[in-house]
Amino acid sequence: MPKLTVEGCAPVDVPDGKRLVLAMEQDAGVDVLHACGGNARCTACRVEFVSGEPENIAQAEQALLAQRSLTGVRLSCQIVCDRDMTVRAVSRLEGSGRPDPGPLPSEQIDPPPTWVAR
């Protein structure tokens, strides 16, 4: 089982292959935003990697980050926990002014990923 550490929270073991956005919310108890429901459309679920960043990136994530000129961040909805990782949650419900984090993302990455090397 991969170990997930979100800065400011205790490390947790998460099932191999679980979406990072769900692991942060359900396992680590972090109030991460996912306004688009985890579909690589909004960038609300941004994280910064401290360690364990995957080498590959989904084309949908890569395109959205480029479109929004975002660097140094990744979309937690487009990443699976397949290794130990430490992240910093960039966008959280607390302090956002939003009534909720957004629709619950499905268990599978959506859109279905085409992986490319970063």
The CATH class designation is Alpha Beta
Largest pleated sheet: 5 strands, mixed
Radius of gyration: 13 Å
**Structure class:** alpha+beta
Strand content: 15-25%
Tell me which CATH architecture applies here. Answer: Roll
- CATH topology title: Ubiquitin-like (UB roll)
Distance between the termini: 25 Å
If helices are DSSP runs of H or I spanning 4 or more residues, what is the number of helices? 2
Q: What is the helix content? A: 10-25%
Strand order, sheet with most strands: 2-1-8-4-6
CATH homolog superfamily: Beta-grasp domain
Low-confidence stretches: none
Number of strand elements: 9
The dominant shape is globular
Question: Assembly type of the shown chains?
Answer: single chain
N-to-C SSE series?
Answer: EEEHEEHEEEE
Overall average pLDDT: 97
Q: What does this protein structure show overall?
A:
With 118 residues, the chain is of the alpha+beta class. It has one domain (3-94): Beta-grasp domain (Ubiquitin-like (UB roll)), CATH 3.10.20. The protein has helices at residues 20-27, 59-67, and strands at 3-6, 12-13, 18-19, 46-51, 56-58, 74-75, 80-81, 85-89, 115-117. The chain has a five-stranded mixed beta sheet, covered by helices on one side. Strand 1 (3-6) and strand 2 form a beta hairpin. It is globular, with a radius of gyration of 13 Å. The relative contact order is 0.30.
